[in-house]
Design a protein that fits this description.
globular, 2 domains, single chain, two-stranded antiparallel ribbon, 7-stranded mixed β-sheet, 18 helices, Arc Repressor Mutant, subunit A, alpha/beta, Rossmann fold, binds S-adenosylmethionine
Length: about 375
């Protein structure tokens, strides 16, 4: 699949994002939504539920095509007939009608009484300039490299080994180095997701207790920039692969914090930059197995002095309770990342402890959590 051009900074907010809702409200909404989804499922006969869920691949492909062909922008002008839409998107009117008819049934577009198609809030989330970059995520998930890994799920169940490396001959990060379009698209998707979560981190953790914060594997700097915007006295270090940091410069400049950030191209398997008193790892450990996690954390420990800190930021899974967010993500980590996994807070505490940190404060924010470790 050909990817949309990287969206650059379109729609990325310059100032700090709004204060997030309280954790109890998030948990309540998640619980209510889970209940309603289960209820909707229970209303269908079991074999219909099976058939509906089994067509997930069709949805993945259709949503990505909706994103890639820019229907969100085309329909911004107002409701259009399939024939009118087809002149913009290069499709035949019949195929366009049938495609949008199906997507209207899924709630991705609205069909009017006179048979035209109109935008809605879900479709607008696929605009190139939507700050949360759902479009990039849709394209990532439907990318050939990801889908081919998923089609090899059976051998992962047999061997416990990740499919991505078996299918593509290298791990996903090395693959991205050779496929810069896919790398940039994935980084854009992460930036969008992280912009959503960053205000929770920036307003929960007591950043006023530190002077310099390093984001290890910090991507384009979405989290670091939010933390710096909300804490004007802080300075930052952004560490990631060199090719990823090239694009980070623009985002940090756009958000007005570039002069407060040192960029450190580096592999966290070799070293982590010195000079910070807090090291954030957001959605890093879940990409790797325990051995790799200990190697990363050991490098963070080497960069720190006693009393300095690491802050793990990712979803805490509870293995006793299937979770509509964490459990599918755990499977994605197993399949695509190097035997990565979502972990429970006690598993993360053990990793932190094994690596020379005393587990400290923990914050459960509903959709994800923060765990501090203090270097001993
Ligand atoms: C899942 S993304 C998380 C990005 C960012 N922390 C966030 O949450 O938005 C994983 C990040 O790890 C980076 N990464 C992968 N291997 C790395 C390595 N050996 N050294 C440094 N960064 C690496 C990737 O480039 C990517 O930015």
């Amino acid at each position: 699949m050909q990817l949309t051009n990287e969206p650059g900074l379109a729609g990325i907010p310059q100032g700090p994002r709004p204060r997030p809702p309280p954790t109890w409200a998030i948990k309540l909404v998640l619980a209510l939504r889970g209940f309603l989804l289960r209820l909707a499922d229970a209303l269908a006969p079991p074999h219909i539920r099976v058939v509906e869920h089994a067509t997930g691949l069709a949805r993945t492909a259709a949503i990505a095509e909706l994103a890639r062909r820019g229907y969100a922008e085309v329909l911004d002008a107002g409701p259009l007939t399939a024939a009118e839409i087809a002149t913009h998107t290069g499709r035949t009117p019949d195929a366009t009608f049938r495609f949008l008819h199906a997507l209207a049934a899924l709630g991705f577009v609205r069909m009017t009484h006179d048979g035209r198609f109109a935008t809605n809030s879900t479709l607008r989330a696929l605009r190139t300039d939507h700050p949360n970059r759902a479009r990039a995520f849709a394209e990532y998930f439907a990318s050939r490299s990801n889908v081919e890994a998923w089609l090899d799920l059976g051998r992962t169940l047999d061997t416990g080994k990740n499919a991505f490396e078996r299918v593509h001959g290298k791990n996903i990060w090395d693959y991205f180095e050779e496929h810069p379009n896919e790398r940039d698209n994935f980084a854009a998707a992460m930036t969008g997701m992280t912009l959503d979560l960053a205000p929770f981190v920036a307003s929960t953790y007591p950043f006023d207790e530190v002077l310099t914060v390093c984001d290890v594997g910090g991507g384009h700097g979405a989290l670091l920039s939010e933390v710096l915007l909300r804490h004007p006295a802080l300075r930052g270090i952004l560490a990631d692969n060199a090719s990823v940091l090239d694009a980070a410069r623009a985002l940090l400049a756009h958000r007005g914090v570039a002069h407060r950030v040192r960029l450190e191209p580096s592999s966290f398997f070799t070293s982590v930059p010195e000079g910070a008193d807090l090291y954030m790892l957001k959605n890093i450990l879940h990409d790797w197995d325990d051995v790799a996690c200990r190697a990363i954390l050991a490098n963070v420990r080497r960069a720190t002095r006693p009393g300095q800190r690491v802050l793990i930021i990712e979803g805490f899974i509870d293995r006793r309770r299937p979770d509509p967010l964490r459990s599918p993500s755990d499977m994605q980590m197993m399949l695509v990342c190097a035997e990565g996994r979502e972990r429970g807070i006690d598993e993360l505490r053990a990793l932190v402890r094994d690596s020379g940190f005393q587990p400290g404060r923990a914050f459960d924010l509903g959709i994800f959590g923060l765990l501090e470790g203090v270097a001993t």
